[in-house]
Amino acid sequence: MTDLLQVVRAAADADVAVDTSYGGETFDIPAEAWQPVAVALRDDPTLAADFFDWLSAYDDGDAGFAVVVRAYSTGRRQAMMLRTHVPRQVPRLASLTSVWTGADWHERETFEMFGIDFVGHPNLIPLLLPDGFEGNPLRKEFVLATRMAKPWPGEKQPGESDLDLAAEDSTKRRRRIRPPGVPAPGTWGPQ
Do residues 12 and 104 share a domain? Predict the structure, then answer.
């Protein structure tokens, strides 16, 4: 880890935190150092991160969006993970497609699902969602409208069915639980 940490710190030209959760090391770097650190991992002869594995993001609430990339050195048989945060208001980050061409598809998916703009990406267009789709479905504030329009299978308690609910006396029914991401009735949509 010391070689890797030294290369990351030198390329980031900033303080680098190391998270050792879940049995691996993740290097937290500033957003400005995203591309330079990736280039350093790829070009450093001792590390030689020549294989792009994956890139994704997650909604980190008030901290913005965390973007994570995993690269791999086939010579050393070692995985390397970088993480950075971008603000919610203007989520922008340098593209890694010039470092690893495999980042193309992953950045397009992350752009579409979270709305993160990858500056310098050659073809940042929607990838998975239908034409005309509005919003970014993996953001926490995104309302899952389809769960309001049709019954969600998870709303039934174990052992219940649609037939049981119709035949039951309303006093014997259990409290209805809304599935995650569904707002309370009357707070969203047509009234």
Answer: yes
